[in-house]
Specification:
The structure holds two protein chains of two kinds. By secondary structure, chain A is of the alpha/beta class. Chain A has a single domain, classed as fumarase (Alpha-Beta Barrel). Chain A has a five-stranded mixed beta barrel. In chain A, a hairpin with an 8-residue loop joins strand 6 and strand 7. The two termini of chain A are about 20 Å apart. Chain B is of the alpha/beta class. Chain B has a four-stranded mixed β-sheet. Chain B has a four-stranded mixed β-sheet with strand order 6-9-7-8. In chain B, helix 1 crosses helix 4, helix 2 runs antiparallel to helix 3 and helix 6 crosses helix 8. The longest helix of chain B has 20 residues. Chain B is globular. The chains are: A alpha/beta, B alpha/beta. At the A-B interface, helix 4 of A face helix 3 of B.
C-alpha cells in the first residue's frame, strides 16, 4: 500500500481531491478538539462570535492526550470515537474547518455534510496512542486550558498515518 | 485461624500491576496480534495491525501509555475466607490508582459527577468488585478499561424461550453495529444469566480470561467458537477498516437465571487489552 505524503498547511486543499480508502502520511500543523472543546466552539458559533481564525483551513484531530512527561513532546495521543462529535460537524465545517481526524463510523446524516461543505473525514488507528504520540513533534495548548486533556492543542505531526474514510464528495468507507 | 496480610504489601503489588498494565501489552494479546497479522491479506488490516504491534513496542520501550485513554481502573478482588487485611482494601486500591496515575503521567479520565463533569485529577475512584473464596489467599485482577469500547457495551433482557440461533444473531448483530467504533480487533465478553447487574459483571469478568482459554463447559466453549467465527465473517476488521480479524476472542460466562428471564450482557473490550493480576 502506498502512503501519500501531505504537507500542511500548504497542501490542505489537496485533501478535498482525495478518494475514500487512500492512505496518507500527514506532516505539519493540526489542532486537537474532542467532546467538550467541540461543544464550546459550536457555542461560540451559535453566539455569533465564530471560531478562532487559526482553526479555519485546518484539520481537527479528535484526541485528548495523556499528560506529557518531562523531556518528551507528547504523551499517548490516539484518536477518540468521532461519532460522539457528529452533532458538531456541520457547524464546524460551515466555519471553514477542512476536516477531522478520528476513528470509527459516522451517522449517515453526518456523511452528507462532508459533501455539502467539501470536507473530509480521516481515520487513524484507535488504540495506537503511543505510536501516534511519537509522531507528534510539537505540542502546545491553544485554547480552553481549563479542559485539561480536552483542551484544544496545537500540534505539529510528522508522517502521521490516516486513511480517507469520507471524502469531499460524501463517499463513505462504510457505504 | 486468620492469615493477616499487611496493607503495604497489597499496595506495592497494586502499584506494580496497575503501572505495568498501562505500558505493557500482555503476551497473549501481542501473540494474537502477530497471528492476525500473518493471517490477514486485507491491506488495511495489515496496516492497522502493523501499527498496533509497533504501538506495543513503543509503549514498552519509551514508556508512553499504550492508549491515551488510560481508562477507569476496575479491580476484581477475590478474598479468602481465612484472610484478614490490615488496612481498608478499598482505600488501598484508590491510593494505588491515584499514585500510579500521577507518577506515570497517565491521563486522568474520571469526572466526579456525570452531569457536572469535574475531573478528579487522579483517575479515582476505582471500580471494585469483591468475592469471597475459600482459603487464605488474596487475589486481585486489575483491568484498565477505556470508554470507546465501554460505550459500545450493553445489557439487555431476551425472552426465556430464546433459541441458540437467536442468541447468536443477537450477539453478532450487536458487534456488527457497535464493533467498528470500539477499536477492533475486539475481545467480546459475554455474560449470560443472573439479574441485570450480575450479567453485566459476568460479561466484564469474561474479558479477564487470557485469550485462547475457553469456557470450561464444552457446550459454551463451542458457542464461543461459533460466535468468533461468525463475528470474524463481518469484515469489520482491525480498526474497522476491513479484514477477517474483527475479534481476537469471544469469552462467555454463564450463571443460573429466573424462569421468566434470559439476561444478556455484552462487554466490548478494545485491542488494548490491559490487565494483570497478583496473588498473595
Amino acid at each position: 500500500m502506498r502512503f501519500k505524503k501531505i504537507f500542511l498547511p500548504k497542501e490542505i486543499n489537496e485533501l478535498k481531491s482525495l478518494k475514500v480508502g487512500e492512505w496518507l502520511l500527514l506532516n505539519g500543523p493540526i489542532f486537537s478538539a474532542r467532546d467538550q472543546a467541540c461543544k464550546l466552539l459550536v457555542d461560540l458559533i451559535k453566539e455569533g462570535k465564530g471560531i478562532p481564525l487559526e482553526l479555519k483551513n485546518s484539520l481537527i484531530y479528535h484526541m485528548g492526550p495523556s499528560p506529557t512527561p518531562p523531556g518528551r513532546v507528547s504523551g499517548s495521543a490516539g484518536p477518540t470515537t468521532s461519532k460522539r462529535m457528529d452533532p458538531f460537524v456541520s457547524w464546524l465545517l460551515s466555519q471553514g474547518i477542512v476536516g477531522f481526524i478520528g476513528k470509527g463510523k459516522r451517522d449517515k446524516e453526518t456523511e452528507m455534510y462532508f459533501k455539502k461543505y467539501k470536507g473530509v473525514y480521516l481515520v487513524t488507528v484507535g488504540g495506537a496512542g503511543a505510536y501516534l504520540g511519537d509522531k507528534i513533534k510539537k505540542m502546545e495548548i491553544f485554547a480552553f486550558p481549563e479542559l485539561g486533556p480536552e483542551a484544544i492543542y496545537y500540534l505539529e505531526v510528522e508522517d502521521f498515518p490516516a486513511m480517507v474514510a469520507i471524502d469531499s464528495e460524501g463517499n463513505s468507507f462504510w457505504k | 485461624m486468620f492469615r493477616v496480610i499487611d496493607g503495604d504489601v497489597i499496595y506495592d503489588k497494586l502499584v506494580d500491576v496497575i503501572t505495568k498494565a498501562n505500558f505493557e501489552l500482555s503476551r497473549d494479546v501481542e501473540d494474537a496480534l502477530w497471528e492476525a497479522y500473518n493471517n490477514e491479506d486485507n491491506e488495511n488490516a495489515k496496516i492497522v495491525l502493523d501499527i498496533l504491534i509497533k504501538n506495543a513496542r513503543i509503549a514498552k520501550e519509551k514508556r508512553i501509555p499504550i492508549c491515551q485513554d488510560c481508562g477507569m481502573v476496575v479491580a476484581f478482588v477475590e478474598i479468602g475466607d481465612k484472610v484478614y487485611v490490615k488496612g481498608n482494601l478499598n482505600d488501598l486500591i484508590d491510593r494505588a490508582v491515584s499514585d500510579v496515575y500521577k507518577k506515570n503521567y497517565l491521563r486522568p479520565s474520571v469526572v466526579k459527577d456525570p452531569l457536572r463533569r469535574i475531573n478528579t485529577q487522579d483517575n479515582t475512584p476505582a471500580i471494585v468488585h469483591y468475592e469471597i473464596k475459600p482459603g487464605d489467599k488474596l487475589r486481585v485482577y486489575i483491568l484498565i478499561k477505556g470508554f470507546g469500547s465501554e460505550n459500545a457495551s450493553i445489557v439487555k433482557s431476551l425472552l426465556p424461550t430464546v433459541t441458540e440461533e437467536e442468541l447468536i444473531n443477537e450477539i453478532v448483530n450487536h458487534v456488527k453495529n457497535y464493533g467498528p467504533n470500539a477499536c477492533p480487533p475486539l475481545l467480546v465478553g459475554i455474560g449470560i444469566g443472573g439479574t441485570l447487574e450480575k450479567a453485566a459483571l459476568l460479561s466484564k469478568k469474561a474479558t479477564l480470561r487470557p485469550l485462547k482459554e475457553k469456557n470450561h463447559d464444552p457446550y459454551w466453549a463451542k458457542m464461543e467458537e461459533i460466535l468468533l467465527e461468525e463475528i470474524n465473517k463481518l469484515n469489520i476488521g482491525p480498526g474497522g477498516l476491513g479484514g477477517k480479524t474483527t475479534a481476537l476472542g469471544v469469552h462467555i460466562e454463564v450463571f443460573p437465571v429466573h424462569i421468566a428471564g434470559f439476561t444478556l450482557a455484552i462487554n466490548m473490550q478494545c485491542s488494548a487489552i490491559r490487565h494483570g493480576w497478583f496473588e498473595i
